[in-house]
Amino acid sequence: MRDILPDIEKWRTRGEKIAIATVVSMQGSAPRQPGAKLAVSEKGELAGSVSGGCVEPAVVQTALEVIKHGRPQMLEFGISEAENIEKIGLACGGTIHVFVERLDW
Q1: Contact 10, 93 (CB under 8 A)
Q2: Taken in order 40, 45, 47, 50, is the CA torsion positive or negative?
Q3: How many CB atoms lie within 10 A of CB 4?
Q4: I need a surface site. Which of 46, 47, 57, 84 has the fewest CB within 10 A?
Q5: Is 95 helix (H, G, I), strand (E, B) or coil?
Q6: Domain boundaries, the chain
Q7: Is 25 helix (H, G, I), strand (E, B) or coil?
Q8: DSSP code per residue over 59-88
């Protein structure tokens, strides 16, 4: 969290709304551990990471929606052999759950 605090403070000082995405659980192989965070400003600026790759843009899009509407969301990303390869998932084969919430001051 300390790595994203300077950016959060900068955005807060500018009066921007902010969402935080947090990896809350993982199964199997995943690029980031539980507790990893991504901060998103209402202008789309980013600090931190919850996964990288094709998952991160989906989390950013959800974060922007959460900023706008204020309703937190729980996301799940993973892929199994039975799932369509076009679905957003983790190339490493694991599953992560990411909780996205708006910071209200």
Answers
A1: no
A2: positive
A3: 17
A4: 84
A5: strand
A6: 5-103
A7: strand
A8: HHHHHHHHHHH---EEEEEE--TTS-TTS-
CA 25 to chain centroid: 12
- The residues with which 27 forms a beta bridge, in sequence order, are 95
Q: Count CB neighbours of 3 within 10 A.
A: 11
**Single-letter code of the amino acid located at 34:** P
Largest CA distance in the chain: 47
Q: Which residue type is seen at 68?
A: K
Q: Summarize pLDDT for 74-104 with one digit per residue, the tens.
A: 999 886 444 444 444 445 567 899 999 999 8
Alpha-carbon distance values, 83 to 6, 24, 27, 46, 98 (Å): 39, 23, 17, 30, 20
What's the whole-model pTM score?
Answer: 0.85
